[in-house]
Structure formats: structure tokens, C-alpha cells
Amino acid sequence: MTRKSCAIYAAGIVCAHLLIIGIGLVVAQVFPTLIHNRLKREITLTEGSRTFETWKSPPPPVFMQYFFFNLTNADEFLAGAKPVVQQIGPYTYREYRPKANVTFVENGTMVSAFNPKTFVFLPKESVGDPAKDIITTINIPNVAVMEKVRDSFFKSIAASVMMKGVNSGIITNRTVNELLWGYLDPLLVNVKKSKPEVEEYFGLMYKKNGTNDGEFVYHTGEHNHLDYGRVHSWRGESKLSFWTSEQSNSINGSDGSAFHPLLSKEERLYVFTSDLCRSIFMEFEKDVEVKGVPAYRFTPPRDVLASKEDNPANEGFCVTPKECLGTGVLKVSVCRKGAPVVASFPHFYLGDPKYADAIIGLSPKREHHQTFLDLNPTTGVPIRANKRAQINILIGRVSGFPQTKFLNETVFPIMFINETVVIDDASAAKLHKLLLIVMLVSNFPLIIVGMGAIMLLVFILLMIRARKQKTTTTTKEDTAYSPVSHKDGEPLDNQSKNGTYIGLTPSGPQS
């Protein structure tokens, strides 16, 4: 056997083995399974895992923007006209949220932590000075007191007299700092004299700078990757007690900072938010890319804040029939000390048009008011997020309070927040490397198949070349000739004259 034959046979054998092994691995999904199992082991809330330190101290900067609705026709509004508002903002703060008192519990299967938040004002990213800018808006303490006593005639009369005495009306003018971080309210000071448990200070973010919402206990995901980062309990309770159904009181999903790896477009992601005192869900919307990292965008659909008529599953969020509002709004008085606070998306996005139509100056737009999460599907890491929510107050006529006699029932917008985060460059670079490794390992069988295909091509070329060489050799043998030398008796002159000639076999008898 020649060297060429050995090379051909070797190429054929290597090609066959590569194709058989590669196709077998592709069909069996061996390498994708191996890398997925490795990801499930690495992405856990355990000491030494890839994600534990970044979970405790998230590196990407978080920004909180506050937008206020300034009432520009206060007198006309009190006389029964539609309120006219002007959006003012953003007032931007850098938000720091490292987890504190991180402790493993339940034999290491869960981890507890507090989530303190600290806010630092960013003047260059804001429209003005929050210590000086005045906002005209609804006097929330005043409305809250009216709501508390509205079912008692005598208490209503007493509260009305008290409001007159301290000059507390439906409308107030306060600085942004006062509305956010708190101020001493004269009405609450008087109420505290008879009810010591009442807080004298009021602010939308009062006691939320440098404080936390209570202890969270999370699943580590060590035994089941789908449990990674899932909230097990909040403030010592594994379910809520605010609402009227078991489903509504369930604590589902993560706190929004961590999601399990190997996400699917078909799944529904749950997020528990203590601000709303409930869990919400998000669904896949589209594929996106952030800093070169692929991601799935998940957003809350209209069903999340739909009315019980549009979504019967939401009936449990109606504490009483009076508090069961329409699509796009959720009354959260039960976890706001009885104040008539209503939550919604900004500008009543995804809500019943009647809420936005009742306020002049609102214009819901998806690109400005949608909440979304962009998650890398392989790792579950949040790449970009925009959490947008609006705080409103439900106001209307209240018997015993003459200042409300011309008011129409209105869900009045006070402020909306836009909490944003985008993965930083260093984290994006690390994620790129990890995804490259995952891709190479997952596609290793395809690489083997590709090498087998190349060897098959080489084998075919060698076979064609060998066949051509064999055909050429056979043709040459069939048409070969040999030179005839000088015969005896032939004159040398003829030989030198005619040179070498080809001898042919005579066709007939010679004479």
C-alpha cells in the first residue's frame, strides 16, 4: 500500500469518527447539558459562587429620578374644574443599596439580608434645587385625616375645626425636599396630642434614606436553580395579610435584583415589591441588546393592574368594594396607614383612559412610562432596568368638610419615580467572556461535526485526485511506443537523414 493510499484511508477513518462522534453529541445534547449544570451550580447565593459578592454589593450604579405634578389652577380645581398639572423633574439621586447583615439560615439553604437604601443628590442631573423649588399639590396629611374620620359625623366636625385652626387646606405648597424627605405638619402635630401613635412628620420618602423595609429571606438556588434569589419571607412572614385572597397575599418571585439562569421566553417572571405591598408579574416582550450583551425584555402587562372585571384574579386586591378601582390603578391604603394612596404606572400608562383624561397635562407614552427588565437569558443577570411607578391620592367630596363640596372624585397624581440601572462596562466585559465560554462549550459538538465535514471534503478531494491519476496512467500505457534503432544493412545516410522513425507492423506479405 502506497503512502497516498494510507493518507486517503486515514482521512476517511478520521472523517467517519468525527462525524459519528459529533452528531452523536449533538443529538444527545451532552455539552449543553454539562455547561447548563455548571451554570446552575455557579449561579447560587452561596459563599464563593460567581454571583454572591455582586448580589451583596451590586456594582452598576442605580439612579432614582423623581418627577412631580405641579397644580397650576388650584382655585379653579377647588371650584370643581379639571386639575391642570405641569410635570417638573427630574430630581436625580444616586442610589446605594448594598445588602446588610447577610446571614445563612435553614442549614445554608436560605440567606437573610436587609436592603438599606441611601440617596445622594446629583445637581448636574437635576432640573433645579430641591431645597428651593416649590410644588403646589394635594395636602396628603389633610386628606388622610379626612379619610380616617369620614364615617363619624362628630369626628368630622372636630377635624374640620382643627384644620381651620392650623390653616390646613386641601392644597399645599412645599419644597421638593419637604415633599420627599419630610416636614413637620401642623395638623399632624395637633392630631398627635390625642393619638400619640401618629407620626408628626410627613414625606413621600420619609425615613427611607439610610433605612430598610425589613428583613428578607431568600432561597439560595443551590438545590433548584429556579429558586435562585426567590423571596421566601419578608418581615418574618412567608405571606402577606393586607389583601382578601390567598393568591393576592402570596409572596412570589425575587425582589427584582436577581433572577434564575436559563430563562425562557415563555415563562412568567414574578417580582415582589414592598412599595406596592404585593407581587407583580412580567412577561417577555422582545429581544434586545445592551453593550453587546443579548437580553430578553420582560414587562408587566395590562393584566397586572387590571380591574376585577378585566382580570378576575385581581379581585383579592379589593379590600372593600369601595376600594376596588378600575384598570390601571391599585389602592394601597391597607399598607399606607389608611391614607388614600393609589399606585399606578406614570401618567396612568396601561390604565383606563378616564384617569388620564380627568387630568389636563398627562400624556401616557410607552417609551417614557413603561417598566421593563432586560435580562441575559443564559445567566439571568439584569443588564438594564427601568422601574417606573406613580403615587396618586384619591380625593373627592367628604361630608363635614366644606372645602371639598365642589370636588369631583379624582385620582390625583402627586409624583412618579424612574429607577434605572445599566450594567457597567467592567461587568459587561466579564459577562461577555462567560457567554463566550458557554457558547464554545455548548457548540463543541458542532465544531467536531464541522471538522468532520472538512475531513470529508479532504477525503473526497483525495479520492478524486487518486482516480484522475489512475486514469491518466492507464491511458499512457495504452498509447505507449518505443523508438527503433538502426537496422543492419540500412545506410547510415538514411538514418542520419530521416532520423529515428517509428516502426510499424506491415499490413501485408512482403516480397
Mean pLDDT: 85
- CA-atom Rg in angstroms: 39 Å
Total number of strands? 19
Strand content: 15-25%
Mind summarizing the main beta sheet? 11 strands, antiparallel
Number of helices: 13
Q: Fraction of residues in helices? A: 25-40%
**Helix vs. strand class:** alpha+beta
Shape: elongated
- The span between the termini is 53 Å
> Could you name the ranges where pLDDT drops below 50 across 5 or more consecutive residues?
494-511
In a nutshell, what does this entry contain?
The protein has 511 residues and is an alpha+beta fold.
Structural commentary:
With 511 residues, the chain is of the alpha+beta class. The protein has 13 helices and 19 strands. Strands 1, 2, 5, 12, 13, 14, 15, 16, 17, 18 and 19 form an 11-stranded antiparallel beta sheet that branches. A 4-stranded antiparallel beta sheet has the order 3-4-10-11, with no helix packed on it. Strands 6-7 form a two-stranded antiparallel sheet. A hairpin with a 2-residue loop joins strand 13 and strand 14. Helix 5 packs antiparallel against helix 6.
What keywords describe this structure?
single chain; elongated; alpha+beta; 511 residues; 13 helices; four-stranded antiparallel sheet; 19 strands
